[in-house]
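Dear colleague,

Thank you for sharing your sequence with our group. We've completed the structure prediction you requested, and as agreed, I am returning the results in plain text so they can be pasted directly into your records. Please verify that the sequence below matches your submission; if there's any discrepancy, let me know and we will rerun it promptly.
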Amino acid sequence: MLNEPVPAPSTPRADGRQAHQLRPITFQNHIAPYAAGSTLVAWGNTRVICGVTIEENVPRWMKEQGVTGGWITAEYSMLPYSTLQRKQRDISKGKLDGRSSEIQRLIGRSIRAAIDLEKIGTRTICVDCDVLQADGGTRTAAITGACVALALAIQKLQNSGKLTVNPMLNGVAAVSVGMVGGRALLDLCYTEDVAAAVDLNLVMNARGEFIEIQGTGEEATFTETQLEELLALGKAGVRELLAAQQAAIQQG
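Please find the predicted structure tokens below.
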């Protein structure tokens, strides 16, 4: 797999991108009017609605353990029509599937790294990410969009006087990278994702610090040199995403 001939760096991908290019990404803010903050992130052919709501309380375990400050929790779901074949709703199975559970925990960890929980007071911030259309990178789109929705919700709390200080620490964004046909590629679409010999998801903040790295060989191994190449691609992609996030947040 990873010993296949490496194509020339200039060889375009199936969608015309170069190896280092992100798919086009846009944010449509305030897509959910009843949410404190929301955005529809369109990333290539992937579409995810990210909405944030605020509850004026904290989980019972925080009270019982004497934990101060607030909390952030996340939920992730793929709508039945988001994939080529209908995806059965989790509620019809009576439980959350393992993939969705793992992804929403990742989103929660990532978003908690973006905010000072002590500064939000005794509140719970609920982040909901619903996939309308899936073409690879739904978890990275959810994280990247959720941070925009969170920033908009924080702005609303500040404007209403409920927060006197900004609790946001750093922007957080996520992107996928992978080895496909012996070549390191940034931001995998679905066809690239299923063909990848190595698949890696990278979550970072605006300070250039890692929050989470999820990487695995798909019936393949990879070298330290290849890992370094993937990380370099991912870090460059995250910088672009953080700039796109800031532009979306400034638009309000």
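Summary note from our side: The two ends are 46 Å apart (CA to CA).

Kind regards,
the structure core
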